[in-house]
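To the wet lab folks,

You asked to see what we're planning to order before we commit. Fair enough. Below is the target structure as C-alpha cells, and below that is the sequence we designed to fit it. If anything looks off to you, flag it before the synthesis order goes out.
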C-alpha cells in the first residue's frame, strides 16, 4: 500500500478587506466576484458556499513550482484589478487563520495511485466504502448494479479495510498529520489558529479533516492501480507569502513520497492548548523533518524546502503580528 504521487492541488482562502480607523473591515467577496453562483464555484478566483470568503483554485500539477506560479499569477491579476477599480482601489487581500470573525483554510488536494486490486474494482463500479456501507464515488455518474459474483472481492475488500490494509481517509490524514500538523501548530499564530480550528477543519470535531473527492486522472495507470483524490482540510490558509505556501505544499508532496517512513510513527501529536506551544511543536516538526532529510525520497521541486522552512519560522512575526496584514503581493510577483 505505497502511494504513487500524481498531482497536488489547492483552494486556499482569503478575504477582501479595507482599513478604517485602524480596524480591518470585511468586504464580502461576492460584492467583487459577481458571477452567478455556478460560475463562482468553478472560477480560478471565486467564492465557495460562503459569500464572504474568496478562494483561489490553481490547476492540479505534478510540480510544486508550477502550482505556485499559477497562484502568483492569480494574486497578481486580482491586485491589478483592485488597483484600477474606482470602487475597490483601497481594498487589500488578507490571508490569516482568523480575520474579522472569518476562519480561513488552506485546503490541499493530493492525488495518487495505489496497487489495491479490490479498490480498483470499487472504482470501476463507481463506488467507495464509507466505513460500513458502499456509496457512489461520483454521485453524478452512472452507478452500475452489483452482481452476485461481486460479493467475493467486496468481502475481501471489507476484510482488508477492517484490518487497515487499504487506503482510507483516516490513513491519509495520518500521513498528512505527521509533518503538516506540527508545522501548522508551530508556524501559525496560536490563538487565531485555535479560533479557526474550532469552526472547521476537523481538528476540534467540527467539519471534515479529510474529504475524498472525485476527479479523472490523465494517466493510463488507472487500468492497473486504484486512484485516490483526497482533500486535506486541517491547515489554515498559507497565502500570506510564497515561502509559507511552498512549505505547506512541499511538505504534502514529501509526505506522500515517503509514506514508508511514516507508517510506524504517524500518530497525531497534541499538546495542551491553554498556553501557546509553538516552540514545542516546532521542535517536534524539526525532528520529523530531519528524518525526511536523512532517509527520505526527494524530487527536484522539493530541494529548496531545507532552506525555505527555517526562513518561515524567522518571518512568521512579520506575517502574523499585525491582524489583517495584507498578503505580500510583491513577494508573489517575484515568482512570475
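Sequence we intend to order:
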Amino acid at each position: 500500500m505505497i502511494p504513487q504521487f500524481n498531482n497536488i492541488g489547492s483552494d486556499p482562502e482569503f478575504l477582501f478587506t479595507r482599513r478604517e480607523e485602524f480596524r480591518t473591515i470585511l468586504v464580502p467577496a461576492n460584492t467583487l466576484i459577481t458571477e452567478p453562483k455556478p460560475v463562482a464555484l468553478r472560477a480560478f478566483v471565486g467564492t465557495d458556499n460562503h459569500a464572504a470568503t474568496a478562494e483561489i483554485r490553481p490547476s492540479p500539477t505534478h510540480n510544486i513550482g508550477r502550482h505556485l506560479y499559477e497562484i502568483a499569477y492569480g494574486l497578481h491579476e486580482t491586485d491589478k484589478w483592485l488597483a484600477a477599480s474606482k470602487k475597490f482601489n483601497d481594498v487589500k487581500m488578507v490571508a490569516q487563520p482568523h480575520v474579522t470573525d472569518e476562519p480561513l483554510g488552506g485546503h490541499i488536494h493530493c492525488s495518487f495511485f495505489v496497487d489495491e486490486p479490490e479498490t480498483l474494482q470499487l472504482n470501476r463500479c463507481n463506488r467507495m466504502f464509507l466505513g460500513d456501507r458502499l456509496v457512489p464515488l461520483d454521485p453524478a455518474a452512472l452507478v452500475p448494479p452489483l452482481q452476485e459474483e461481486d460479493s467475493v472481492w467486496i468481502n475481501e475488500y471489507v476484510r482488508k479495510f477492517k484490518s487497515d490494509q487499504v487506503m482510507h481517509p483516516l490513513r491519509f490524514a495520518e500521513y498528512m498529520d505527521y509533518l503538516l500538523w506540527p508545522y501548522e501548530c508551530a508556524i501559525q499564530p496560536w490563538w487565531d489558529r485555535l479560533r479557526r480550528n474550532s469552526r472547521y477543519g476537523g481538528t476540534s470535531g467540527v467539519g471534515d479533516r479529510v474529504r475524498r473527492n472525485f476527479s479523472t486522472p490523465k494517466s493510463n495507470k488507472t487500468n492497473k492501480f486504484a486512484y485516490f483524490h483526497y482533500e486535506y482540510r486541517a491547515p489554515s490558509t498559507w497565502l500570506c507569502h510564497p515561502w509559507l505556501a511552498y512549505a505547506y505544499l512541499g511538505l504534502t508532496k514529501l509526505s506522500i513520497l515517503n509514506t514508508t517512513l511514516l507508517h510506524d510513527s504517524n500518530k497525531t501529536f497534541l499538546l495542551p492548548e491553554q498556553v501557546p506551544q509553538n516552540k514545542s511543536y516546532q521542535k517536534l516538526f524539526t525532528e520529523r523533518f530531519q528524518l525526511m532529510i536523512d532517509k527520505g525520497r526527494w524530487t527536484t521541486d522539493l530541494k529548496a524546502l531545507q532552506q525555505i522552512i527555517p526562513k518561515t519560522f524567522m518571518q512568521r512575526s512579520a506575517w502574523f503580528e499585525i491582524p489583517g496584514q495584507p498578503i505580500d503581493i510583491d513577494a508573489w510577483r517575484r515568482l512570475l
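Structural context that might help your review: The first strand starts at residue 4 and ends at 20. Residues 128 and 137 are 5 Å apart (CA to CA).

Thanks,
Computational group
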